[in-house]
Amino acid sequence: MFEDLSDFHAWLARRRRANTYRITRVPLTDLDGWDFEEETGNLVHRSGQFYSIEGLEVHTDHRAAGSWTQPIIVQPEIGILGILIKEFDGVPHCLMQAKMEPGNINTLQLSPTVQATRSNYSGVHRGQPVPYLEEFVAPRRGRVVFDALQSEQGSWFLTKRNRNLIIEVTGDVPVLDDFCWLSVPQLHELLLVENLVNMDSRTVLAGLPTRPADADTGPIAHDAGALHSTGQILSWLTEAKTRYSLRRRRIPLNAVREWTRSPDEIAHDRGRYFRVIGIDVEASNREVRRWSQPMLAPLYEGVVAFLCRWTGPTYHVLVQARTEAGTADVVEMSPTVTCAPANYEGLPPGRRPLFLDYALAAPASRITLDVRQSEEGGRFWHAENRYLLVDVPDDFPIHVSDDFIWVSVSQLESFVRYGNHVSVEARSLLACLHARLATGAPAAAGGIPAAARPQAAP
Amino acid sequence: MFEDLSDFHAWLARRRRANTYRITRVPLTDLDGWDFEEETGNLVHRSGQFYSIEGLEVHTDHRAAGSWTQPIIVQPEIGILGILIKEFDGVPHCLMQAKMEPGNINTLQLSPTVQATRSNYSGVHRGQPVPYLEEFVAPRRGRVVFDALQSEQGSWFLTKRNRNLIIEVTGDVPVLDDFCWLSVPQLHELLLVENLVNMDSRTVLAGLPTRPADADTGPIAHDAGALHSTGQILSWLTEAKTRYSLRRRRIPLNAVREWTRSPDEIAHDRGRYFRVIGIDVEASNREVRRWSQPMLAPLYEGVVAFLCRWTGPTYHVLVQARTEAGTADVVEMSPTVTCAPANYEGLPPGRRPLFLDYALAAPASRITLDVRQSEEGGRFWHAENRYLLVDVPDDFPIHVSDDFIWVSVSQLESFVRYGNHVSVEARSLLACLHARLATGAPAAAGGIPAAARPQAAP
Hints:
Two copies of one chain form a homodimer.
Chain A: H1 5-18, E1 21-26, E2 34-36, E3 43-45, E4 52-60, E5 67-74, E6 79-88, E7 91-100, E8 108-111, E9 114-116, H2 118-122, E10 143-151, E11 161-168, E12 179-183, H3 184-191, H4 199-205, H5 212-216, H6 230-243, E13 246-251, E14 259-261, E15 266-268, E16 274-283, E17 290-298, E18 302-311, E19 314-322, E20 332-334, E21 337-339, H7 356-360, E22 367-374, E23 384-391, E24 404-408, H8 409-418, H9 424-439
Helix pairs in contact in A: 3-9, 4-9
Pfam families (chains A, B): Hexose_dehydrat
Organism (chains A, B): uncultured bacterium BAC-AB1442/1414/561
Protein name (chains A, B): NDP-hexose 2,3-dehydratase
């Protein structure tokens, strides 16, 4: 435990020095254990496990491009992202891990207690056992605080899901090297630091109940003060799922159009979106000390933004019903803006994502959060997004388009509990929003009423 | 409107006489507009619309048979099942339709106001417009009371869903022939009559809020008095979705093993499960007056049963996490028992469905509902299930198996609201359970406390 966050930063620096990592880019054709299948051109691991890079053909009436093909990561197995919590002196603490992921910009970020694919924990890769896994796999000693299947990046993964778990224990927990207890208030501070709390941590933390009552005594009145009832929001989502179509078909990677594979990488012909690259890793402290893998490297920084508004004491975010190539069920509740602006450069305003320019042009006085965060470093290479919260003025319309709806923060939390409703970008930004509200740094539009601040207790 | 239900029954008899229907069995090879595709043997409509009979290969570790192939109905489009409600003298009434479906045992049953596939209402079949459809398609004049995407029979349909809608209006509604207003209390009485309120009505009625507060002021305290919190139940469901696997692959109908196609029908080689048969229909009052279609004819009556228990004033049902061939997401919350007992005849007790024999052997004093109900007559031929509610004694265990959990009726209602959680059999039985509680006929185990009766107001 750390009295002060400067102690934590010193600890993190020590962990960084304690372990050595060497990450080297290599051509895809030189990846140890990985091959392009002869018939399909799919990039697969020799064991048939882990994940593969395949092709996807998409048809939808809910994106500017009605149909396209693209490379996509196929990883059908459900992994575990789990955070162990325990109260010390009445304050809930999370057991976090300083973890190297090869795609991390800064090598080490704060991961959940457990971040394991099924291949990890079923021993397919023949590494060491995953520490603390037994706390998350039934039968377990702790109390389940949060447990939901959640989607991951729909542009890059085909219907991938992870199980997000928060388990509370009261007994002794030995703290291994690379692990530390951080209080929820400390984590809130750290969520406002760029590229520190990793995506897996953020999506799990989005499920941390913000009011003590929530966990065990049932749903609270999520609709209190909200612009729309939960029933109206569910109907809006049903409407979107019915109105739009998303048809797709897995195709061989070598049937993907407008993308070219060289020995070195797979890249889009007009230099858009992402590349698939290969890396070799040597690490002194991972379950497996040396491995090779393909990674998806986005070419440009993204923007992930919620437009926000206070309605009396109730904070709302403008949620988008968004369709991605890999979305499991046509649409998910996504941030107001999720895109890489560079992919839309030079397009006339009418063909640029709605509210992108609004968010980018917002005056500093209305921006209550602006922090760069990384997406998952286990699959994505240096994937960085600018996370923004932008308060809108009172005269901003309530109804803006059938694809958007104002949802109170409390309502968004309740949809997170049910799983499969809220996109990973929205959950990740929600964790930062919780941090922003809890730390109570002066808000742009007159400050956040203290009464409205959620209590950060599990 | 009917002062008395005898007036309703007289009206229904008149509607039966007012229209003529002729339903004839014909060989599959003689079905007008339908063909077996040469390459696959799939039974498809010449337009490429409606639905098709195809093959499915299933692998799962959550059924006695680990893997099998079977014919299955593929109908990707989302239909609408909608009930219009309106208050008369302060009592909510539903606009119901006396509708012929070719598979109905008794030709006419009570359908929702609108029961339309997308092919119906988009005019693919070139029939007359669907009456009242405009009340359900946005923009609509009424208030959305309930709106969720819900699954249908997972043994017979591949991930089929319909949109279940309840819309409340205050303005004038002309009542067409074959339609009538029934009050919610009257519908509750009729739900206890066998084969009268059809499956589509039952699944929609399961979404009718049982407390006035539910519809607009947000989630109520569903967990009050419940044996498990909503969070625990969600975790139980997540656990089941993670623990079990369901992999499947569409295969050509002619690659299905252990089933044989004759010109007349498709049947299982050992006389189990169902047959696929063909019928010709002539009706005097349908959008299309004459058509042919294949239907799925189950060979045996099924049993759909909830074990139930009172815990103080809170009524619970024993929910099963069940996997069917066509289940969208590994498991759904299903009744304690869902099966056709004849398919398990002669098997030793350990291989028969859990609680089937318990439910069948229950003394009359513990059976609070025992009514035969039909499944959808538009796709299924004479599909009849025995719906049972069986009260268990107080010493019945709370934990019976990882696949089962006690859920309060109020909690089950809340999962119905979110869609995609509760199976069609469970929703259908829930509607009957609501009816059973609301009509307050003497319960087996000491009567239903009046205070526990849900108010049947939308």
